[in-house]
Amino acid sequence: MRRFFLIAVPYAWLLVLFLIPFVIVLKISLSDTELAIPPYTPTLDLSQGWAGIREFFAGLDLENFVWLTEDDLYWKAYLSSLWIATCSTILTLLIGFPIAYGMARSPEQWRATLMMLVILPFWTSFLIRVYAWMGILSQEGFLNQFLLWIGIIDSPLTILNTNTAVYIGIVYTYLPFMILPIYAALDRLDGSLIEAAEDLGCSRLMAFWLVTLPLSRPGIIAGCFLVFIPALGEFVIPSLLGGSGTLMIGKVLWEEFFSNRDWPVASAVAVVLLLILVIPIVLFQRNQQKQQEADQ
Amino acid sequence: MTRLSWFNVVSLTLGFAFLYLPMVILIIFSFNESKLVTVWAGFSTKWYGELLQNEAFLDAAWVTLRVAVFSSTIATVLGTMAAYVLVRGGRFFGRTLFSGMIYAPLVMPEVITGLSLLLLFIGIGLDRGIFTIVLAHTTFSMCYVSVVVSSRLVTFDRSLEEAALDLGCAPAEAFRLVTLPIIAPAVISGWLLAFTLSLDDLVIASFTSGPSSTTLPIKIFSSVRLGVSPEINALSTLMIAVVAVGVIIASLATKRAALQRRREEQLATQT
Prior knowledge:
Chain A is mainly α. Chain A contains 14 helices and two strands, in the order αββααααααααααααα. Chain A has helices spanning about 1-30, 50-60, 65-70, 70-105, 110-125, 125-135, 140-150, 165-190, 190-200, 205-215, 215-230, 235-240, 250-260, 265-295; strands at about 30-35, 40. Chain B folds into two domains: about 50-225, Orthogonal Bundle (MetI-like fold), CATH 1.10.3720.10; about 230-270.
């Protein structure tokens, strides 16, 4: 009885507030748009029993999904989200790896402090961390003032409200997610393996390339997914740092819902985004599982 | 591996500068006299004074705090239950679905979670307000709590629980006297995580809040969209300060607890 209660309460909570909402999104993505409150006509009528379901399948036209392929905006937004997420993941890796590598090679007594310094930004507000860059990247911001002062540029650069600012924002906010798994992998790495490689005639660079890098691969893969997955559906960064030309699907969904009040299309956008996300999520899970099995 | 090359030193210095400089600049300019956020015009705390007089921000802060306390507390209870069931519950009907529902919200884009919850609330005719934000925050943060707690449950020695049961404890008593004290640090950090997640959240709160329940992130977002302002800098500084103090206290407390435990263990082995 007690066991039943323990299982049933969280189970029921998640069913009602997580799973059922998705079914509703799916259902509304298949309904017709209408100017009313709520702004859609359901096409599935369960009160008529089987007849309702049969009618639903007969009238199923996926028009919102067809609409997504017809209007340029949507597929461009999906492609540009994928592109931005991929590029910023690679950038985060290029910046994060040397930091994680430096942490792993630093003296034992520093490491706990360095770890905490990487985690600390994660506890401070995401919104504030993105906001901090608005003052830095603007026309009269610190970056431009600094560059003008040292004389690299003659006139201020426009960085805020461009895709460059979005890249900087994503790299900055998700950097800890990249550093931590790579550091964990490098920390576990047996130093004698590298010594062995060097004794056997490898240069330090070769030892790094042939031993360190392959052995830290699980950490690199985990870090890349931890950055790529949230970056793909990101809303705050493109809407604060990006410009009107920045197309990202999270922003499109938001505007479709709040500005255009087109619930069926917003739901269809969400369903397609989920379908795209399933691939990296499954790959990530597999990487983690392999890692766990290797540890045992 | 403790040979720091110049390359390591440079990358660590630049890396941490990149992580911390934006926040340092933000904090410095919250004490700026001028309304222009990028020109230094002398030290002043006037923006803090104005912040404390801004009713809209204070109201929003109060809403956010209430939402965070309620949702993180409920999420801790539910998340701990879920972790216990997943690690100790054995097989039951729909276990795969259950663990899927625990892990899925961790990778779900916030816009989708927010949209789906809003459609649910409208579908069942629930008026949006503080209550609906609490429901939404509880749902995603209980998953984080459950991941944190279950990682502790997996590593702890099960024979301790069995010993308590053998010595005549009822299962509930064994949980209260043995399991709970051991997993307590994980439960507390789960609560803290849920609390900060709720304080931070903008997207899900925007979907699930009503007109009378603006949270602080929503308020910040709508004023930040118009540009940088020294008042927001002051508010951000206060929030960063609260977090920094909290993290330092927590790390000191865990260090002290670890020292205490080591001392007790030494005593136990000596006698």
